Amino acid sequence: ATNRTFTMIKPDAVENGHIGAILEKITASGFRIVALKLTQMTVADAKEFYAVHSERPFYGELVEFMSRGPIVAAILEKENAVEDFRTLIGATNPADAAEGTIRKLYATSLGENAVHGSDSDENAAIEGAFHFSGRELF
Ligand code: CMP
């Protein structure tokens, strides 16, 4: 069925000038952009967004990274969006990501891995609502 996923182009990829290339790859892969903006998470935003990881050793580093500069947030629609988007971005660690995936092409490291992709329909809805109001969805 057609469904939605949520993504962020992370601060590393924005800093490295990859916004355009990543959006092109996303749309060329059949995703429709439902919502889109350049924004920046505060430290408090990043702590809340990644609360599920709060007990992990990399939590502090993750929060600092995700709040250090602007990100591009987007909601994407496609048949099988959540799973197909995770295939498009590749493994969490770019060293393990398949050829041609966004992380293989544009990620810096395990911690600074260029893009986020929701891991379930439920989390896609929660994460999309974290960043966008209803009138920002088209
Ligand atoms: P993502 O899956 O989008 O969301 C959680 C992020 O935590 C993940 O991407 C990585 O960027 C980061 N992460 C996961 N494991 C580690 C780790 N071992 N060290 C640093 N960052 C990590």
Detailed description of the structure:
The protein is an alpha+beta fold and 138 residues long. It has a single domain, classed as Nucleoside diphosphate kinase-like domain (Alpha-Beta Plaits, 2-Layer Sandwich), CATH 3.30.70.141. Helices cover 40% and strands 20% of the residues. Strands 2-3-1-4 form a 4-stranded antiparallel beta sheet, sandwiched between helices. The two termini are 19 Å apart. The model has no long low-confidence stretch (mean pLDDT 98).
Give the overall shape.
globular
Strand order of the largest sheet: 2-3-1-4
- CATH level 1 class label: Alpha Beta
Output mean pLDDT. 98
Structural key phrases:
7 helices; single chain; binds adenosine-3',5'-cyclic-monophosphate; 138 residues; NDK-like_dom; alpha+beta; nucleotide metabolism; Alpha-Beta Plaits; globular; 20% strand
Question: What's the arrangement of secondary structure elements?
Answer:
Elements: E1 2-9, H1 11-15, H2 19-28, E2 32-39, H3 43-49, H4 59-66, E3 71-79, H5 81-89, H6 102-106, E4 115-117, H7 121-131
Antiparallel strand pairs: 1-3, 1-4, 2-3
